[in-house]
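User: Can you model how iron/sulfur cluster sits in this protein?
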Amino acid sequence: MAEPFILIPGRTSQQGTTLNEGKYTEGYRVEISTLQVAPEDMQRLELEDGDLVRVYNDVGEFTVPCITARGDELPPGMLFISYGDNSSRLMGGDTQGCGMPDSKGLDVFLETAKASE
Amino acid sequence: MSTTEAATETAPGLRVVQDATCTFCGCVCDDMELTVEGDRITKAKNACVLGKAWFFNHHVEERPEALIDGQPAGYDQAMERAAEILLSARFPLTYGLSDTTTEAQRVALAITDWIGGIVDTTTSVCHGPSGIAFQGVGEVTCSLGEVKNRADYLIFWGGNPAESHPRHFTKYSLMPKGEFVPNGRKDRTAVLIDVRKTKSAKAADHFLQVKPRRDFELAWALRALARGVELDPSIEETTGIPLETLEEIMDGMKKAKFGVILFGMGLTMTRGKHLNSEAVLALARDMNEHTRWSAKPMRGHGNVTGADNVVSWSTGYPFGVHLGSGFPRFNPGEFTASDVLARGEADAALIIASDPMSNFSQPARDHLEGIPSVVLDPKLSDTARTASVAFTTSTYGINTGGTVYRMDDVPIPLRPAFDSPYKSDLEILRGIESRIRQRQLAGSLPGPAVSGA
Ligand code: SF4
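Assistant: Here's the modeled complex, given as structure tokens:
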């Protein structure tokens, strides 16, 4: 069953270094296609590192593997992904008249995609 | 500055370039010592992990000078085609500009003026909201040199410098010994405010984990405390931070001799956007009733600050400027790239050193894919792949000289490491500009003042 979360796309040093190696390298692709989930949420949803999850909102969706966020980096209820093609799929065109679409703190739903495997 | 002036030959085929500049992030560190072997940088002393990745991965790749509709082409042919595309557009968009030199930015702006288009930079999707906020409440500002030499209280808000600007802590803000902070880190107090407990939290004395999308409320709570307004303890429920903690922080802020708030995109990209930046800028302003405080945005790309400067000094506005009426008009939301693409308005695009096809909203990407575009990039990107004309360029700071602006608006010269067979953004843009002018003058095409969309 899908659950509501808040998604924070952001930069990581791994994203920065692999970006320089090239956007078509395996390293970059993996970095922007891995969703970090808080340990408590991983446990509650019975997810394991590498399990596929589908994240969606009214704009779009992506399906990527998830990993447990380091230590207490993420509070429960929050997801993190490196900026890139996947996070952009959930960004709508409306900028509320300021030029900047909502790009962080996005309301999304997450559901396990294991069943469709 | 030429390559040779600061370069020394240490062994045959091996050169060392002193005081080179890294342009990967807005820190624009200008103390690099690069070892160059042929057309490769093999050592980058003083560079952080991101800087090393930048220097080691920008060697010359075997690619055609340009691609026209995916087919290899020479520069001349591609510049002709680019001029044609831009001249026949009714509502062209110039976008990107944050990863190129100030000299190239000026020419891109001139082209946009000649064709009566919109010029917008990646600022609109990073600190554009802060640019709007500056106009609302002003900016109490300072240079990174002042931060290094004076700041004894630092607040990092909505950013993760440890990962995004790795040398900010060590070179400019947290660690260095300065004239009025002789003991470096020991003389400074650092606060991190963020929704995530990032790697940067370890470096701070206090970590305030604000609830997502509550930065505005937190900034106003601190503004209230700065003015001596009594706050209800329910502020903890709203922001996630107990009132006592806020009072303790405010006490420290008031006792500081020189405080600085360095704020990131956690504020500008989240609901509230320019209102979040405005609240933080106003907090810094309010604090000057008590002691000296400044606020600076942490800028991402190497020369995004230069883009703001060039667009501002040329048009009077920092980004999202329409030049089609013969005079500049600024209206974020109306003339910003994300909007004119998502609404399906722009009918051609000139994109310099940026990859909107991989980081714009889905509706904007869908439209950009369908319109003719001219793209300049040293590397292949999703945007270059879908372009009508894609130029391969040399890399600024590595192959070409020029000027970039550090995040604190200080201009810094580049010292390139080795030559590239590819033309620079500046050369290509000049080639496109002269072709556009030739055609406009030969055909007495109407100028932008009457042809504007
Ligand atoms: S902090 Fe930024 S500018 Fe300095 S070396 Fe690292 S990536 Fe380059």
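A couple of observations from the model: The beta strands of chain A are 3-10, 35-37, 52-56, 61-68, 78-82, 106-112. The helical segments of chain A are 13-21, 26-32, 39-44, 85-88.
User: Helpful, thanks.
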